[in-house]
Amino acid sequence: MNLDRAIFAFAGTVVLLSLALGYWIHPAFYLLNAFAGLNLLQSAFTGFCPAAVIFKWAGVKSGSAFH
C-alpha cells in the first residue's frame, strides 16, 4: 500500500468511526468528522498532511500526491 491509499483509508476510517461513535455514544464525536474534513481541505490546498508525515515515518512508501 502506498502513502496515498493509506491516507485515504485512514481518512475514511476516521469518518466512519466518528459517525458510529456519534450515533451510538455521544453526538460530540461528530466534531471528529469536522476535524477530518478540515484536514482534508487544507491538505488539498497546501499539499501538507500531518498523517502523511506519520505514515512516512512509519515506513509507508511514497505515492504521487504527498511527497
From TrEMBL:
Gene3D superfamilies documented for this protein: 6.10.140.1340
Domain Inner membrane protein YgaP-like transmembrane: 2-57
Top-level taxon in the UniProt lineage: Bacteria
Keywords carried by this UniProt record: Membrane, Transmembrane, Transmembrane helix
InterPro entries on file: YgaP-like_TM
Any Pfam family matching the protein: YgaP-like_TM
Transmembrane segments: 7-25, 31-55
Signal sequence interval, chain numbering: none
Protein name: Inner membrane protein YgaP-like transmembrane domain-containing protein
Organism of this sequence: Hyphomonas johnsonii MHS-2
Lineage: Bacteria, Pseudomonadati, Pseudomonadota, Alphaproteobacteria, Hyphomonadales
